[in-house]
Design brief:
Length: about 130
């Protein structure tokens, strides 16, 4: 009986360790991540420190999930600072990471102009597949 309970508890903790608890909000979606760290020509707006749980009890969470959640939190925070780009200052450590927040002028470039497609003689309309 105790063994079955321990197995179920272990399975539950492992499943929770793979969950993503952090969601990217609408303003955060507009924030670009400079994975290569190149922010030439950008204006530094500050530094962002974020943290998430990297362990659930004795179990270590998936490092890719942790890294993804840290990036998501940083993007959400950068949007509140009027930044449009973030760059990691280093690798995550114990569920914590620091990012630089920058204004690079990407907001204007991210909003494509909406032009109506030319009207077709046969009445067909075309729509972009992806904005």
């Amino acid at each position: 009986m105790k063994t079955t309970r321990n197995i179920l508890l272990s399975a539950l903790l492992a499943a929770l360790g793979a969950c993503t608890w952090v969601k990217l909000d609408e303003p955060g979606k507009a924030v670009h991540v400079a994975y290569d760290g190149r922010v030439d020509g950008c204006r530094a707006l500050g530094e962002i420190g974020v943290s998430v749980k990297d362990r659930v009890g004795p179990y270590e969470r998936n490092s890719l999930k942790v890294k993804d959640e840290l990036e998501t939190l940083a993007r959400n925070e950068a949007a509140s600072m009027q930044a449009d780009t973030i760059a990691a200052k280093g690798e995550p450590h114990d569920g914590e990471q620091r990012f630089g927040a920058y204004a690079c002028g990407r907001r204007a470039a991210a909003a494509p102009s909406r032009q109506q497609p030319p009207a077709s003689k046969d009445g067909a309309e075309t729509y972009p597949v992806k904005d």
